[in-house]
Amino acid sequence: MARTGLVLWFEEADWRDKKLLGGKGASLAQMTQIGLPVPPGFIITTEACRKFYSSRKAEMDELERQLRGNPPPAVRDEIIKKIWALIDQCDLPAGLMEDVREHMQELERRTGKKFGAADGIPLLVSVRSGAALSMPGMMDTVLNLGLNDNSVQALAKATNNEWFAYDAYRRFIQMFARIVLALDEKPFNDAFDRKSEQFAREAETTYKDELDAIRKLYPEYTPRLDAQPPKDIAPRLWARSLELIKELVGEYKDLVRKMWGEFPQDPYVQLELAIRAVFRSWMNPRAIFYRIANNITPDMADCTAVNVVTMVFGNMGWDSGTGVYFTRDQSTGEDRPYGEFLPNAQGEDVVAGIRTPLGLDELKKRMPEVYNQLIEAGKKLEQVNKDVMDIEFTVERGKLYFLQNRPAKMTPLARVRSAVEMVKEGLLTKEEALLKVDPEQVRRLLYPTIDPKVKATPIAKGLPASPGAASGQVVFNPDDAVEWAKQGKKVILVRVETKPDDVHGFYAAQGVLTSRGGMTSHAAIVARAIGKPAVVGAEAIKIDYDSKTFTVNGVTVKEGDWVTIDGNSGSVYLGELPTVTPELGGWLDELLKWADEERRLGVRANADVPEDAMMARKFGAEGIGLLRIERMFRKPERLEALRRVILAADDKEREAHMKELADMIKPDFKEMLDIMDGKPVVIRLIDPPLHEFLPSSEELLAQIYDLREQREKAQASGDAAKVKELDQKIAELQGLYNRVKALQEANPMMGHRGVRVGVTYPVIYYYLTRAMAEAAAELIKEGKRPVLEIMVPQVSDVNEIRFVKNNAILPALSDVEKEYGVKLNVKIGTMIETVRAALTASEIAKEVDFFSFGTNDLTQATFSFSRDDVENKFMNQYLEKGILANDPFDTVDVKGVGRLVEIATKEGKEANPKLEVGVCGEHGGDPASINFFHGAGVDYVSASPFRVPVARLAAAQAAVKEKLGIRGAVGE
Ligand code: ADP
Ligand code: MG
Ligand code: MG
User: Among 303, 920, 923, 934, which one carries the catalytic annotation?
Assistant: First the structure.
């Protein structure tokens, strides 16, 4: 026995080892071992495929790496040619073919069939690809292998059906030519079409009587050369089609001879070539690009197995057929078998969608026995695999065979529903159900989609930057959006691109459409953060702000016209299309309730405005982890007041203006604390560089220039009063200009901002704290339970915290407590967003009640990357060239930033056991990062409201994985 260990029977392979067997092989082994009818066969493992490639692996890896850089088509084709040339030089592992031959001989014994012989029952096999991860349709499979000029006659005798035998032969030659010999298939298709048309013509004329007789019994019958006419009803038609098929077989063999060489008659030569071809199909361009697009790494799937499976025939007549069966409805998740069945057909016909298949209910009517057996097997496979299954089956003369099973691909809704229902059925534990659902899928469930029943053609396509569908009237600037929204209109904000100053327009609009920018453009990030649908970078749209129109492919859309955008697909439509919010029926709620029972991490929301806070509560946030007050300064009178604070000549003046400003924003604090009644609200003291609140120096210069011109004119016309008035204005602006210039910084994000403002102008921090404290005090007096937590940004030294506490925050709190006669219990905390703060956490922890990692800034500081510049200039290349595995602004960088998080959390908690630790950067909503934070001992994460459910589930998954000892995605 020449056993290499690379070839395993379905009976003996350990079906849990998908990496070795590939998913398809594992499923065949599994079904065999649980007693379902599977045609006998064996698996050549992925290990054999790795050995096949091993001598050329380094070169091939390098070529594949070049493909990852997404080269232009011409270069790409060159690279692929090189890869295939290398494959031609690869050898099958030593002894493999001997081993396979022995298995084939054993298969002959087991089935009582003969491989490639003219006598007896012929053994035909399929040679099927299958990697550890399902890559549907990406690799190759050869059916009916073993047919040659001899065995085709044996097959005809054995089945007593010559038509069937020659049809199989015809199919085999064509498939072999295309897949194994890599010949152009067009001449084969052309030859088939010519013959098939000839047959149809003759059927409608010469054999009309027989055709009518068939149609009476089988209305779905159409005369084609690949469907066998029932011999008993239409003997002449049957004989004629057989003749034509035989001619076709001859033509096919001629084609092969011309394009390659004599068609191989030795079945073992066929088999060896087919095995090589299946191995090669792992490096098919489409397979390579599928792996790149889906981020499939070698530790997930490395090479394909080859499954050699005895053929069963769904095309042996009308009591045969082939189909696929989903154990539950893939789109709704409802526990209802769903599937398709094609009578008198072979597998490839369903997959390729050549003919219209029947529903399962029809199968039930025609073959009730088979149907029941199928459903029963489905239940069993669900039980063993604990998942909704997608099953391939074939019926040969009334007998059912299983050919493959795999977990079904489902919509997010179906995922959630089936997971929850499987718990109720006792199929899954709650923990298992929680692991079934991808947290990102949950997010998609919260948004409306365009009603799938509506057929509409988009007028433009952009990037699906923020999910959800929305309709509204077009407006072109953010102030109009606010104005129109006030009048109760629904609007879509359309911009070339957006800036921070446009954000009020986002809130007013139903959705945002831009003609420029990518998935990380400002519009995309903000829209996702606040949960508004957005399509960005729809470049075909030409916007003209002056005429308030945009044009796209000859269509002009004016301000006020209705459009619908679909942030799920990136499509833009004319008019108002109906949208639907997926009907959850409480399944998601239920799943998230279980998530809450499992998770250790708390989940809060980042929310700056009441809409966000209400959304956060609705989605189950346990508090606000970050309230940025900067948005509160957007209203013109407040911005004016803040500017006066910044530009004040002395402390006294500054204090007066600050007091005024504090009174203006107090109601906003009150509203937010009230909405979150009983739950903590972390309010961050002013953070950005002060100049962000001032007009730009260029703008001021332009104004000054303008006034000077007016003054000139006034002087020329002798209007002295006007001159005087203008002089005064000019002087004022000049003063402002000088202040703005003085405040200008070379590197504002690393300049005079955050706590540094609190240190230089304690009065600002004092009054901001007062405003928050007064808001809380008033609520307490009204019988409410506000939970205020105050957070200091940009700290790098404990003395900064000490200073602002002693000179601003504590005095403000005690003043308010005294004045209102209430006890406030305010927690004081700090952001950890500078490297030094993380490294001196043990000192800082003694001065505060909580830390909150601002992982965006911390990532910038740790890498010395400026986020905006990085994303536009080189991040893509870093990812393509494999310098970074992930964008550290999407998923936390475990080695650097993560290490700082771990150090600061550990040392902070040692120094102050009561210290509470949160994360409020965007990473707080990223599942992989959440998994890391769980392990790092963080107490809670804070995410944008729409990410709260995602975070709840991700946090639960982290806890469940820890409990069950499953390794997570990041950092382990
Ligand atoms: P894919 O991975 O593209 O689905 P498969 O290897 O599953 O490729 O095969 C393609 C089609 O051929 C499927 O419909 C399958 O059910 C059918 N098929 C494969 N092997 C056999 C067999 N031994 N007998 C009958 N049909 C088969
Ligand atoms: Mg398949
Ligand atoms: Mg920050």
Answer: 920
What is residue 585's predicted lDDT score, i.e. its pLDDT?
A: 53
Same domain, 2 and 38: yes
- For residue 509, the one-letter residue type is A
Per the domain annotation, does 513 fall within a domain? yes
Ligand 2 centre and the CA of 288: distance in Å?
19
For residue 972, the model assigns a pLDDT of 37
**951 vs 613: CA distance, rounded Å:** 16
Beta strands in 763-814 (DSSP E): 787-792
Do 278 and 363 share a domain, yes or no? no
- CA 776 – CA 473 distance, rounded (Å): 40
Which residue is closest in CA terms to ligand 1's atom 3? 137
Residue of 363, 369, 287 whose CA lies nearest to 323: 363
* Known binding residues for Mg(2+): 833, 857
The whole-angstrom separation of Cα 213 and Cα 201 is: 17
Tokens found for residue 345: 């057909």
Instruction: Let me know: does 934 contact 600? Beta carbons within 8 Å.
Output: yes
CA distance 765 to 795: 14
pLDDT of residue 350: 54
Rg (CA), the chain: 35
The CA distance from 169 to 315, in Å, is 13
* Ligand 1 site, residue 126, Cβ cutoff 6 A: yes
- Residue whose CA is at the smallest distance from ligand 1 atom 15: 347
* 258-276 pLDDT per residue, tens: 999 999 999 999 999 999 9
Q: Of 392, 406, 409, which is best to mutate to test ligand 1, by the most ligand atoms within 8 angstroms of its C-beta?
A: 392
Of 230, 248, 265, which residue is a domain's last? Answer: 265
pLDDT in the model for residue 356: 67
Instruction: Give the position, in ligand 1's atom list, of the atom nearest the Cα of 129.
Output: 6
Q: Give 495's strand partners.
A: 514
Whole-number Å distance between alpha carbons of 828 and 801: 10
137 φψ region: left (φ > 0), alpha (ψ -120 to 50), beta (else): left
Query: Distance between alpha carbon 235 and the CA centroid of its chain, in Å?
Result: 55
Q: What are 328-342's pLDDT values in tens digits? A: 988 788 999 999 899
Number of domains in the chain: 6
Range of the domain at 123: 1-145+266-311
Residue with token string 């191989």: 264
Q: What is the pLDDT of residue 805?
A: 98
Helix (H), strand (E) at residue 571? strand 571-574
Reference 25, options 325, 307, 346, 242; nearest CA is 307
CA distance 68 to 880: 7
Q: What pLDDT sits at residue 969? A: 44
> With helix as H, strand as E and coil as C, how does 411-456 read?
CHHHHHHHHHHHHHCCCCCHHHHHHHCCHHHHHHHCCCEECCCCCC
Answer yes or no: are the C-beta atoms of 331 and 314 closer than 8 Å: no
Nearest atom (ligand 1) to Cα of 348? 11
CB of 128 shorter than 6 A to ligand 1: yes
Do residues 226 and 159 both lie within one domain? Answer: yes
CA dihedral sign, ordered 660, 663, 668, 672: positive
Residue 191's pLDDT is: 97
Tell me phi and psi for residue 491, to 5 degrees: -130, 155
Residue 934 annotated in active site: no
| 920 included as an active-site residue | yes
Residues 663, 665, 671, 676: is their CA dihedral positive or negative?
negative
Report if residue 933 sits inside a domain.
no
Residues 466 and 565 in one domain: yes
Whole-angstrom distance, CA of residue 891 vs CA of residue 889: 6
Kindly give, in sequence order, each residue whose CB lies less than 8 Å from that of residue 542, ignoring residues fewer than 6 positions away. 515, 550, 551, 552
Measured from the CB, is residue 281 less than 6 Å from ligand 1?
A: no
The parts of the chain modelled with pLDDT lower than 50 are 351-353, 584, 969-972
